[in-house]
Specification:
With 138 residues, the chain is mainly α. The chain contains 4 helices and no strands. The two termini are 66 Å apart.
Length: 138
C-alpha cells in the first residue's frame, strides 16, 4: 500500500508525465501529431468561452443587484401607498361623521378635531415621504 501511495504521489508530482505519455502514444501511432494541435485549439476555445461566461456572470450579478435594489425601493413605495390608503379611509370616515354631526347640529368634540388634524398631518407626511422616495429612486 505504501509503495502504491508513493507511486501515485510521484505521478502527480511529475509535470512531464502527460507529455511523456503523449509522446509515447504518438510514437505508437495511437495519436497523431495533429491531435495535439486540435486539443490546443479546443483548450484555447474553452478558455475563451470560460472568460466570456465569467464576464456574463459578472454582468448578471450587477443586473441582479440593480433589480434587487429597484424591487426594494418599489416595495417601500408600495408600503407607503398602502399606509396612505388606510389613512384615506380613516379621513373619509371622519369626514362622514363630521357631516352627520353638522347635519344633526351636534358640536364636534375637541378630541375629534384633534384626531382629524392628526390624520391629515400624517397623510401629508406620508405623501411627502412618497414624493421624496420617488425622486431618489432611479
Amino acid at each position: 500500500k505504501q509503495w502504491y501511495q508513493r507511486r501515485v504521489r510521484g505521478v502527480s508530482r511529475s509535470p512531464q508525465v502527460e507529455k511523456r505519455i503523449r509522446e509515447e502514444l504518438v510514437c505508437l501511432g495511437v495519436l497523431g501529431a495533429s491531435d495535439e494541435e486540435s486539443e490546443d485549439e479546443i483548450l484555447s476555445e474553452l478558455l475563451e468561452k470560460q472568460g466570456e461566461l465569467r464576464n456574463l456572470a459578472e454582468y448578471n450579478t450587477v443586473q441582479l443587484n440593480l433589480l434587487t435594489d429597484t424591487a426594494v425601493e418599489f416595495m417601500k413605495q408600495q408600503e407607503i401607498r398602502h399606509r396612505i390608503d388606510a389613512i384615506d379611509d380613516e379621513v373619509c370616515d371622519t369626514y362622514r361623521n363630521f357631516m352627520l354631526k353638522k347635519h344633526k347640529k351636534i358640536p364636534y368634540s375637541k378630541k375629534e378635531k384633534e384626531q382629524a388634524a392628526k390624520l391629515l398631518q400624517e397623510r401629508e407626511e406620508l405623501n411627502k415621504q412618497l414624493q421624496d422616495n420617488l425622486l431618489l429612486s432611479p
